[in-house]
Amino acid sequence: RRGGPRAGQPEEEKGSRLMVSLLLLNGLAPQRTTATKLILSTFLLSTFSKAGASFAFRGVTTFSSLPGLWLPDLPGPQNQIMATVGRQPTRRSARLLGTRNGVQSGDVGEDDRRLEMSEMKVVDLKDKLRLLGLPVSGVKSDLIDRLRAHEEQPEPRKRRGSAAIKPPKKGKKAAGDKNNLKEAVDCLPRTREAQLKTRDSGVAVIGVDEAGRGPLAGPVVAAAAIVPADILGIVDSKKITKEEDREMLYQMLVASKGVRFAVAVVSAKRIDEINILQATLEAMRIAVDAVMRIDDKEESVNAAEKNVASAKRNEVSYVVTSRTSKAEVKGIHERRTFHALIDGNKIPKDMPCDAESLVKGDGREYLIGAASILAKVTRDRLMHEYDEMYPMYNLKQHKGYPTAAHMAAVKKYGASPIHRRTFAPLKHMTFNEDGKILG
Predict the structure, then answer these.
(1) At what angle do helices 140-152 and 122-132 cross, to 10 degrees?
(2) Longest Cα–Cα distance in the chain
(3) I need a surface site. Which of 62, 106, 259, 285 has the fewest CB within 10 A?
């Protein structure tokens, strides 16, 4: 170590001291074996500055050119210690050498990043994965691989001449209104969608979500959507508190280029027949199937009128779809595979395509967030229509949820045809044919 370089020394003097150190090692330990000398030499060199290590390791000066330096009589190249030792470099020497697995490389960022992650605690790795919305199961190496795969994932390419669609401003006051949508800030990523398209570039990914599982009245609605355009402001519909903001995003979604969606409506009667969970899964399956079946058949006037969600429709369940141009439909059916990303932890039975569930997916994945807005706005519109039919319940205000005012109205006026009789507290009440409470 006395022969080691000191701060402020010229590079030539540092190199000279390195040679002296190696000569000193040979003189002080003549009885050491060849392998021991090589290991000690490597350790000695690794303790020097990066510049000094580069002098000895990178072949700027070869061992054979250092006069009087001990050199083992081994076959193969002898100009670098690692070649003579005949083993893989340590992580520290790899960083100094700029190598990966013994191969010279000028970019060690990836190895450095993996080394940094390997030094982290498992709990910290899991916290990072949770923030990214990724699974946290597996051993430490699995967690590191998952993080590295996420970091190396390419961002979705934007088409030339196209940019993310921004929500339009609503006059001069909109710019200063903090309650309005945050422009160019809130927008969900396409993480899982990008991963699926990396495996199969031809796959059509469908986002699926529902609205209306908890209310005491009204239908449950599920939406399935394929949305190629990036629209700023697409987040979980529950996080968009202003109804007019959701309406604006809905209009932007249905008007965006290449969008294809279907919305399934399952009535309160059907919910009472099969329970809310099965009704929700049924709505999701119907919506996905409808998106996959969108075609360019000519519609009659009556068929076009039926392709609208309305409170006047008396069907137990029905579905409405977007209309797509012939060229766009041809592009859909040219794809051989569809893959559905479903919000929640359950997948409907008899799905018409591959599907996977994502817990809290409406806050993690762009397409699921888009589907949540389509479902929420459709249901809110229906509840406004029902409010005109049953004004005593004030459905446009609470959208059928069991608020105190809503429950007071039910006790006063009884239950309407759109109330779910299997939901508490209605399931504990007895009604007559007109919906009046008997007991």
Answers:
(1) 40
(2) 109
(3) 106
SS3 state of residue 236: coil
| CB atoms closer than 10 angstroms to residue 197 | 16
Residue 327 contacts residue 297 (beta carbons within 8 Å): no
Ranges assigned E (strand) in 200-256: 204-211, 220-226
When pLDDT is cut at 50, 70 and 90, the band that residue 177 belongs to is very low
Residue 343's H or E segment, with its range, is strand 338-343
Classify 43 in phi/psi space as left (phi over 0), alpha (psi -120 to 50) or beta.
alpha
- In this prediction, residue 161 carries a pLDDT of 42
**How far is Cα 209 from Cα 96, in angstroms, rounded to an integer?**
51
Flag the least confident range among 71-75, 228-232, 311-315. Answer: 71-75
Mean pLDDT of 316-341: 71
What are the helix (H) ranges across 153-300?
191-199, 243-255, 268-274, 276-292
**Single-letter code of the amino acid located at 405:** A
Q: Give the pLDDT confidence of 96-142 residue by residue, as tens digits.
A: 444 444 444 444 456 677 778 888 888 888 877 777 777 777 788 88
Token pair listed for 329: 């439909």
- Global confidence as pTM: 0.59
- Whether the CB-CB separation of 194 and 380 falls below 8 Å is answered with no
pLDDT at 71: 45
For 250-283, the pLDDT digits (tens) are 999 999 999 999 999 999 999 999 999 999 999 9
**Cα–chain-centroid distance for residue 47?**
43
Closest CA to 27 of 84, 70, 90, 71: 70
Q: Which residues contact 426 (CB under 8 A, 6 or more apart)?
A: 216, 410, 415, 419, 420
The rounded distance, in Å, linking the Cα atoms of 126 and 120 is 10
Q: Which helix (H) or strand (E) holds 355?
A: strand 354-358
Rounded CA-CA distance 362/371 in Å is 8
DSSP alpha helices (H): ranges in 134-266? Answer: 140-152, 191-199, 243-255
